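We emphasize that the prediction below concerns an isolated chain of 347 residues; any contacts that depend on oligomerization or on bound cofactors are therefore not represented. The input was used exactly as deposited, without trimming of termini.
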Amino acid sequence: MLDQATITRAIAVRLHDTTIGIWQDDAQDPTFRSEIFGPLIRMLRTRGWQVGSDPDIVKRYNCLRHDHRLMRKGALRGSLEITGRCIQIDIWAETWPKDNRNGHRYDFNKRQRLDYLDRLRVQALESRIIGWLERRASVTVSRSEQPRLAMDRIAKGYAESWHTDKALGRPRCDYDHNRRSADGHLIEHGQTVWAPDEKGRIVRGRAFYNLNCMWWVVLAKDRLTNKACHEIYAEQPEDLRRKRNGRQRRERLEAGIAAAVMASDFRRAETLTRIAFGEEPVWRIFSRKNDCFYAPQYSGYTKDANLAGRYTRQEAMREVRRVPHILHAIGPDGRREDFGCQETSNA
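Result of the prediction step, given as a token string:
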């Protein structure tokens, strides 16, 4: 039988893709960790899951090691974490071609990518967790699923968005800079446009306003992408065969340079540097605020100078002059350069 304390506990289980969210109604209940999170880990272990610490969390945020766990069973991988009144379980596998450079864990539509048997195992895990919780609390279950058709997904997004204008049926685009295309035209809601796909190839579709400068582009009946207005062409661009993937190409080249330097293959590193930058000297950007280098393509930070992003002088100068009180550049000779913002000195 359930005791009185357990009867009064209310839990909402929210299912989305391969994510299981367990939310407690009472944010002030101190027993959520001891009576739900801890026993849930033990239940998973009895079901054959290996649950242990997350090495990355232990290394970077050791004080959170008890709140963040990794789990695995067969080909399935998972993360288990508690934050306040929420427990979240994310499931993935490493059996499909990886899209996200950070790993399979961060790919979208993970349920569809799972092998058939693994998909059934995830369904079984959801049922077992819900049944286990129902013996301890009053449980309500909701599932969030994306419609298959692109236009239905857009309609669902409009219906759920706080920014939707009730009279218009979608968010309003009040500023021209949020609809100015890459070729200088103003994009109209529902018009035919051209945009690069995930591999940089130009494809044709119809644009529907999303929010701020972002637009949904319907590429096919069941295919949808989200692009900034400056990535969209209102008129068919020339040379459709040319890929617009300069950013991805640069990232791959910089990763190759760093790997070659790490392997002491300096001849290959020199060749890749010449391909990426020609004869221009290479600069790095250092943030005094974060005590780290900029990562490639201005995305993130790193303390490793070899893994730091490589930039031309013009790129480094433009970024340093944007926030000179925080940034300086490191030149090819290892000297610090503030480009006239402050006195040049050794790094």
